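Morning. Coffee machine broken again, so started the prediction first thing and wrote up yesterday's gels while waiting. Chain of 145 residues, entered below exactly as on the submission form.
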Amino acid sequence: MGLGFSLNDSKWLGAFALNPSILFRLRDHGEALVADGKKGIYMQLGLAPGIPFFAESTYPVTISLPMTFGFSLKDYYTVNGENQTFGYFSWGPLITMPLKFIPAKFGSWSAKAGAVPDAQQQPQGGQHGGDGFVPIRSVGLALTY
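Came back before lunch.
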């Protein structure tokens, strides 16, 4: 179960908006991926500063750099039964464009494309030369209703 909040602070900060967010998640001991059998509490903090381009056009584009920090408040990330407070940091560029040709009665649609580093992968030789950025790319649609 989770509960999240986000704030569009562009009204106050204009082009320097950070778009902060916070998410709390409770992990139940009955979840399939819980190896230690403990309940846990997770907190995620996020920022998504961005710059709009072509703001006056029908299809403005926003380029942002979302950053996410994941923390274990209580037994969410554990090593040898001990709570590990810091879980991860994720970041990467995101391009968003509203799909205004879809009527508003069907909600607010947008197209998104982005990339984040794969924290699970350590490049091993090959095209990456043993180090560097191994991206997880994403393309998708978002609906707000």
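Residues 2-6+11-144 form one domain. Going to sketch it on the whiteboard this afternoon.
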